[in-house]
Amino acid sequence: MDDDDEIPSGPVPGARLDALRAMLAARGLSGFVVPRADEHQGEYVAPNARRLAWLTGFTGSAGMAVVLATQAAVFVDGRYTLQVRAEVDTERFEPVHLVDCPPSRWLADRLRAGDRLGYDPWLHTADQVEALHNAAERAGAVLVACLDNPLDAVWNERPPPPVAPLAVHAMTFAGRSSQEKRGDMAEILRADRLDAVVLTDPSSIAWLLNIRGGDVPYTPLPLCFALLYADGRAALFVDDAKLSDAVRDHLGPEVDIRQPSELPAALDLLAGKRVRVDPNAAASAFFDRLSAAGAQVDRGADPCVLPKACKNPVELAGARVAHLRDGVAVVRFLAWLEGRAGVDELAAAARLETLRAEGEHFRGLSFPTIAGSGPHGAIVHYRATPASNRTLLPGELFLLDSGAQYLDGTTDITRTVFVRGGGREPGPEERERFTLVLKGHVAISRALFPTGTTGSQLDVLARQPLWRHGLDYDHGTGHGVGSFLSVHEGPQRISKLGVGAAALKSGMVLSNEPGYYKSGAYGIRTENLLAVVAADGPPGGERELLAFETLTLVPYDRALVVPDLLDAEERAWVDAYHARVEATLAPLLDDATRTWLAGACAPLY
């Protein structure tokens, strides 16, 4: 799952924008919308689908560009406000905050009566198209579906689609068979009086059929589509080149294997049937085709999403073992790093990957490592390149956000450490703000909450210590994590954004990652992964309660902690966590690393 070509080798040529504008004019279009997404709306996209990066140079995991005849803009959220200005020619593309001014509002102010705004219906969800339609309508313009993408027409060296081989995800790691899962999903369809569901998210298909692939970087996904019928049978639309005899045997006779080119005809055969399509995940083209065929389209959630998020006992046991293995690698790295002069960001990231690769079942990283020293730590989704690579200097903070894919689990951890050397000590501001972030992190870790609680209701716990000091961070507190699947998984999350928030349920895995970022100076983030588990209630309690089990096993940097800013319960939690980390990892480490870990896990007082 190589991603070396995701970052452009140099500034994006302005001729690409000029060529696109010329093509739009030739087709009678006034503008065109270029999303980050591919046909599957996934976070990571294959090289042939990196249209936004090809056109603008922006390589973040979320964003969109709008090109008009004389204006163009790139829309990003708060994670990428610094990155977009570093990667994009701002004289050609205006950077716009996606939340403060969404594309629909920007377009409504700039489109003129009679304008024709183009979009590719395979690259936008139905909800996104509706927002674009409303914006165009307010301006008196027309939204035009372009089945032949005009950007693709001018992308002369566009790579071919990926054909990585599929692999069977063994029961040892999956815990339940594909037949069992398909049976459960079919029950849901029948209960909702549905004949079929269109599955467009490769992670849902991978989970449902117990398969994995390698078509996109960092996530073991096979790019494919599927139809699941109410009798439990399925049709899988996938390139034959990805299939081995072992995978065919695994899928069995109840899964009909077809070429992707057969999908439109298969949708047409659903005429008169009630068919579920997820408006938040499926491309608008599915709604268009099914409606034209005469199917009754049911707009509803992908039924695989929630069961996939609630890990079964085998998956949870795998997650614990994977985090144990991952903790060994990260602790070995931190012990290696301490006191080592001349290490730069790229070398640090490479060293950690090498240590992880020594662990059993390692299958690669779960996202590009964020290794930000000094001011680079303030760039929330920073990624070191040969041009930006910076040496870790004594007296500075180093933010390291990284994760791995193992057959038995997916990991994601952030630690912010003080770079030792030169007789320097952390500054009082850095220590205070690190400790405020740690307080919020501990508050989430210790949370006890009734069933039915959403992550948005818990988010304030992480932010309250920072708010009391007039501080905050411009990203979510936690995201869901898959089981040898996507490191960013829904529907669970911990965020200020309450729209569409899902109740937390036993078996869900989430990150816990509050932070603080001082632009041009340093960044702080502390992240563990947590599993939602049932909790014993107090005597006399009337509600069923849930709690979090911390999966990640790596110490925090005690040099950055101000113990007096923690209350007695917070200090006790940190000391107990450190004691658990040491007791669990020490038997798996060499003598030198074990000695380092003992010092790192010493009590705060």
TrEMBL record:
Domain Peptidase M24: 320-532
Single GO MF descriptor: metalloaminopeptidase activity
Annotated PANTHER family: XAA-PRO AMINOPEPTIDASE 1
Record's protein name: Aminopeptidase P family protein
Domain Creatinase N-terminal residue range list: 16-139
Protein keywords: Aminopeptidase, Hydrolase, Manganese, Metal-binding, Protease
Species the sequence originates in: Magnetospirillum aberrantis SpK
Domain Peptidase M24 C-terminal stretches: 545-604
